[in-house]
Amino acid sequence: MTLHTTFNLLKLAGACGQKPGSGLGYDKLATALGGVTQYGKNTPIPLARILETNGLDDAIWCFRATVEDYDTVVRPLLRSYLADVLEHLLLSRLTAAAKKLLAEGVALLRNTNTTKAQFQAYERTAWAAGAAWAAGATWAAAWAAGAAWAVEQQWQTNRFLQYLNGLPAETLAQEGDA
After folding, report:
1. Structural domain span for residue 39
2. What pLDDT, in 10s, does the model give residues 138-170?
3. Do residue 46 and residue 117 come from a single domain?
4. pTM score, two decimals?
């Protein structure tokens, strides 16, 4: 599914870098597209283009300012993508108890019938587990190598593009960590 935003939607959502010459967010995108006036304030901008010009963080931020309907189009795609990232990023680096907790969170994200109360209960459990994990300083040890993060960031970017290019959820699920 190709998602789009516009300069007007980005501005309304409070995108960073709205000051010309800042080189951040909105300004960086405007420069890459030849300027807001030339490109058009309401001309759709594919999120894949934002990924290319601004990077993964800005492209993900743009989910809050899409032309497409958030509840029916964006949220299901975002939930699936985030569940994939959680699985890929953490499952190989966690203890058995943390893997179980993470698997529960992924299941909640993938279940379209999950209620707000279920999310909140899970969030309280996850925060408590996270605090205990952080106290053991395992996060710092796991990410000490910058090369590992670069590889992970590339995987996340590639996966994001797969979602934007509309690969069926079944195909993505079968690919696993590929």
Report:
1. 4-65
2. 444 444 545 566 677 788 888 888 888 876 555
3. no
4. 0.65
